[in-house]
Structures are given as C-alpha cells and as structure tokens.
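Justification of computing resources. Each target in the renewal requires a structure prediction run like the one illustrated here; the chain below, 356 residues long, is used simply to show the kind of job we budget for.
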Amino acid sequence: MIDHKLQPLILGTALLLAVSGTSRAAPSPSSPQDTQNIMTVQADDTQALVDIRAALAKIDKGLQSRPVPRPIYPPFEEGQIETWIKDAALARRTIVASQKFLPTFAKVDLGRNAGTVSQGAPYDNSDVQRLQRFADAQKRASDKSYATMAQAMSDGLNGYQTEMQYYKGPTAAENFARLRAYGEAALAIADATDGDAAKPKAFLRSLAGYERKLADAEKKALENFKLPAAKSKDRARLKAAKSILDTKKYGFGDYGPIVLTTKDIAARERKDKEINVEDVDVSLGGDITWSGTETVWTYKWDEFKFVVPIKDHDSDDWYMWTITAKKFSSGGDKTPIGKWVSGKSHKGSQILRSNF
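Resulting structure tokens:
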C-alpha cells in the first residue's frame, strides 16, 4: 500500500516548478500557493503511483535542463557575471529541492520495470537511485564551481590590490573603472554563493581610497600647472603662430596666450624618391632589367614650436597644445611653399583658465 502521508511530499515537488525561470526563492511545499495549481493525490494507490512518477519526471527534467555552469574568468563580457549567477543559483535550487524529496521517494515500492524511461517505461526504484546519484554528482559539481569561482576572484583581487596603487595619468580612470567592475563582480558572486564578502568589500574601499588620493593629487597639480617660460618673444614668429591658429581648416578654435618654446628657427631637409616602372625586360639567361623614371623631391623648410592653451570643443576646459610651425621653400607638387603652416600638433595636459 502507498502511504498517503506522502501527499504533502508529492505536492512539494512544485518546488521544482517554482524555480523554473525565476531567481526568487521557492515557496514552502506546504503553502497554499504551492498546492493550488498542481495535481491532487487520490485515495487509491494507483493514482498515488502516477503522481509520484510524475514528480520524478519533473525532478529528472529539472536536473537535466538546469546544468551547473562552468566557472568563468576575466575579462568578463557585459552581462556574463549576471548570467553565471542566475544559472548557478537556478541549478543549485533544483539540486537542493531534488535531494530533499528523492530520499523519501526511494522508500516507496515502485518496482523494477523492463526498459528505461527514455524508451517509455515508467519510473521505478532504479530511476530513483539514478536521480539520487545524479543529484549528488550535480551537488559536488556545484560546490566545486562555487569554490573555483571564489578562489579565482580572490586571486584576482590579490593581484589588483597591488596594482591599483600605481595607476596614474590619462589611463588611470579607465583602469580604476575596470578594477571597480571586477570588485563588484567578486562581491556579487560572494553574495550569490554565500561566500566571504568581506574581501571584495575591503577591495572596493581600498580602490575608492586610491581614486580619491589620485584625484586630490591631480587637482593640486592642475592648480599649480602654468604656462612655461618663453624661449623667445620674436614678434614675427608669434604672428605666424597666430595665423596658423586662426586658419579655420585646422579647427583649433578659441585659444589663449602663445608661448614660443624654441629659441630660434631651425632649418630642415628631407629627400623623397618615387620610381615609375615603364618596362620590364627578361633575358634568356633570366636577368631582369627594369626601365622607367625616377623622381626625387627635396623638401626644405624652416620650423619652430610653440605651446598654446586651446579650449576644448566639448567643454569649457582648456588644454595645452604643442604645435610645430613649418614654412617650406621646396617640396612636392602639393607642398605649400612660402607660408607658415601647421605641422604636428599634440594635445597635452589640462590648464586652468585662471593660470594664464
């Protein structure tokens, strides 16, 4: 005879339905919410066996369809951490619910049936044992995955903890953001796996401290950053620099005082060569003769350098630019001859408007 005290147990398999597609905790098997939309066990043994086997089918499907995710490692793609936590939690809840009910189902005499469930045979006691072994194996896999993730994240925190103190310059903000994302991921994994959250929390506090320290240092440096002393006050060169800055095609925009950083004008020269092959002759002996024209351009120019604060197009901030002015006396067919033009230009550090 089937012990009809198993009715709450059979109803309790709704736990496996509750975890499907949701991240919230499953309700208690004895709650009204759990029992209103599931099967009702009849008073006869036949229906009870049907319901138990249906519950075993749900357990089997749940364990098969919610595998334990493998550990993941940085660099993480967007949303990868959230997906891993969701999948790992879903697999864990399915395993725990299965292990809760299977031992009691194992006490029920379901017989031994020919064939397997995949061949259409009903669930029997050998299937209960199989599901118990599978659930136990999944529990070990889940424990290992949790431990591996926790250790990997902890090792990463150790390395980044040492690294963060050396961040500075234009890449510091990007590096701090990368470490903050890692620390938040480590904290999320610790919370989701009931791990130690103290370490990632301490990491994030330390990171915030270094960020504040660097911000304070950069603020102080910005306050003290001023225009350099001029190497020359040659009016002709200052006029030439102004004409370059006022040329619309360069797009410099608003600018501040011009400071010459080279004492004198320097003369430069460079030769470029171009060969146009017009004919190729191959002799019987295999010798190859090329014929054509060779053009050589000689570039000669004068140059000087200057720095100037230029207002950023996208904000009210000013940045120090270094610009090379050039005036060519000879060159190629498209070289501007006889006038000062902009050569290389480089955007440097920010400078306060009040400092010039």
